[in-house]
Structure formats: structure tokens, C-alpha cells
Amino acid sequence: MTVQSVKHDYSAVKDTGQIPLCMIGDSITWADFGDHWRKELLTHLPNLAFIGSHTACFGYSHAGEGGDTVAKVLARLEDIPDCPYYHLHIGTNSNSVKEKECVLLQAKETAATIVEIVNGLLAKHGVKKVFLASIMPCYTDNSLRDLCNHETNKILRAEFAKVFPASKVVWVEYEEEIRKVPGWEKIILLHPTPEGYARIAGITAKKIAETLNVKPLQTAVRPANTGVQVVNLLEASGVTRCPIIAGWYTLSFQVNSIDGDNPQLELCGQNQQLPTPFNLTIPVKSVKKRVCKHFYTEAEGYGYTRDYLLIEARNCSISEILLEKMRPSLQSSVYHPEPYIDTVSPCSSGELLEYKNEDENDF
């Protein structure tokens, strides 16, 4: 595993009634209150199942990455997992121009790259539709950024029918709907507040429901032999399988013995010479107990630098170590060294249900 990517089997969807949705974007999709977007979406469409290599503060998967421009999303398309439905909101970080004469030129460049991204997503295996978001308005100390977002949306609206297949790409109109809200600036800002995300989620849910003919509050069902895919990011060597994406994780392990004073577990970045290396210390207090620790890496470039992580036990012996993306239940999964379908741990709304292979044991 060279990158932290995931592959899913969507064969259970016909039986569960879930709608797999991969939300792609920048920090608006990911950071601060970004997971409120997915949490609010589930109040409208509880049969959504969120897909992605990343995880945020409530444990929902996604493919947003803080600071991303359109060029950065285009460059990481191969790492975005295959999914039947995508939601793409991107562009504002590309549009932070400082001179008015640059607005139209940048808007054209941003729109052209968004078209490339959408076409790249349409080429992925099994994709049915891409929900393309108009770039949301923003309220910052740089009004040209908002103007450039607006001009990008104008271009995309005008060219939409010419550059996208009508049956495959669906326009989600955030800009015009948000600007209708009195005082929208206070709830949208650059990163929306929880109230802002609630309004945004209403727009998203309405468009998905209309497009896919989903009944309001339609729930998923869980057939027998289904569970949630869990990837143990740690290899037997105690080093992660790949550099770890910024986000929220759960580390769990079994304490076998305490062998000295101040027993503890250390999870550290492999390269401590990086500008902001990761370091986490977990005190070990009792034997024969499974320890579960949730942690946040900090945002990439703002307290964290992506790196391989390694684990080391000091004055204690541990086993069955599981490092996984944090789940919405805030519980650790059943331990297994390799990727597997966890049919035992509680499943939450927003998690994709997959069938366990017949030759797999229950984990």
C-alpha cells in the first residue's frame, strides 16, 4: 500500500438500499466543522454511505483535503476510490486572486480544470453520476476571491450542457441559494459554521433525492453476513503501511504485561526532522485490558506533516495492535492484522455495508 486508499465491493447495495457517496474537495469538505455536512446529510438521507480514504471529526469517510486547489485534486484522482456517486466541491483555493484584472483569467483556468476533474471521475470504474457543486460564496477579507468563485460558476453554468453528458453530471446550485439567505456571510465565511452546513446539507440532500428518486428519510437495511470494511494501517513491523493522511484515528491494543516504571506506548512520525512531526504518548495503566485511544493528527501543514508512523512500547508488552480510521460509533473494531469486513462491531449510519467473503471468519 503506497497510498492510503480503499477499494470497496458495492454488491450489497442492492440489498441494503444504501447510496454510496464520495465527497471530494478541500477543507470545506474536511476541516473545522466539515463533518457536520455529512452528519446533517444523514438527517435527510439516512441511507447514504460515505466513501473515502479520509476521515473527519465524527468518523465519516470522505475525500476532502485541506488546502487543495483544482490542480491538486486533479493530481490525486487515482487515489480517490471508485464509487457510484461523487460530490465535487472545489475551486476557492485556486481563486484567491489579489488583483481584479486576474479574476476572469483565473476563473477560466479553474473552470477548465474542474471539467478535467469531472471527466476523470466519469472514467472511474462503476461511476453512475457526479454531483458537481457550484463553488460556494465566501466571506473573507479578500472580496476578489468571492468574485472569482462567482465568475467560475458563470462559466460552468454556461458550458455545462456542452462539456458534460446530461445523464451523468448533475449541477448542485449552492451559490444562488446561499446568497438568498439574509446574513449568509456570518454562517458561510470561508469555512461554514454548523448552521451554515445545515443549510448546505439541505441543498445537497434535495438534489440527490430528486435525482435518484429517493424517498425522504428512507433508511438502509442490514442483511446477514454484512459489515464494515476495516483496514489495519499498521504492519506487523510496527510501521504504518503508508504515510498517514491528516485526520481522526483510533488506536487500540491489548496490554499483556507491565515490565517497569512509567509504562507507555509511543506513536511517532518516522522522520522527526520534518517541520511538524507527529508524536503521541499513551500511558499504560493496567494489564489484560484492551486500550482504545482516539486521536487527531492536526491539519496537514498546520501542526502535522504527512509521514509513516511507527509504534513502540516502553516498559510494557502489547499485542493485537489496530490502527484504523475513527468510526462514527467511536468504538474500536475487532482486531485483525489485514483488511477485513467487521461483522461484529456496531455499524453506524453513514458506513458502507459490504458482504463478508464466504471463507472469512467473523471478526
List the helices and strands and how they pair.
Elements: H1 13-16, E1 19-25, H2 27-30, H3 34-44, E2 48-51, E3 54-55, E4 61-64, H4 70-75, E5 85-89, H5 103-122, E6 129-133, H6 143-163, E7 169-172, H7 175-179, H8 184-188, H9 194-212, E8 226-230, E9 248-258, E10 264-269, E11 279-283, E12 290-296, E13 299-300, E14 303-304, E15 309-314, E16 316-325, E17 340-342, E18 354-355
Question: How would you describe this protein?
Answer:
This protein has 2 domains: 19-212, Rossmann fold; 227-339, Jelly Rolls, CATH 2.60.120. It is 26% helix and 25% strand. It contains 9 helices and 18 strands. The chain has helices at 13-16, 27-30, 34-44, 70-75, 103-122, 143-163, 175-179, 184-188, 194-212; strands at residues 19-25, 48-51, 54-55, 61-64, 85-89, 129-133, 169-172, 226-230, 248-258, 264-269, 279-283, 290-296, 299-300, 303-304, 309-314, 316-325, 340-342, 354-355. α3 crosses α9 (194-212) and α5 crosses α6 (143-163). The mean pLDDT is 95.
How many structural domains are formed by the residues? 2
Radius of gyration: 21 Å
Q: What average pLDDT do the residues reach?
A: 95
CATH superfamily of the largest domain: SGNH hydrolase
Largest sheet, in brief, is: 7 strands, mixed
CATH architectural grouping of the largest domain:
3-Layer(aba) Sandwich
Say how many strands there are.
Answer: 18
Helix percentage range: 25-40%
- At the first level of CATH, the class of the largest domain is Alpha Beta
The succession of helices and strands, N to C, reads: HEHHEEEHEHEHEHHHEEEEEEEEEEE
Distance between the termini: 22 Å
Strand content: 15-25%
Look at the helices and sheets and give the structural class: alpha/beta
Sum up the overall morphology in one term: globular
Low-confidence stretches: none
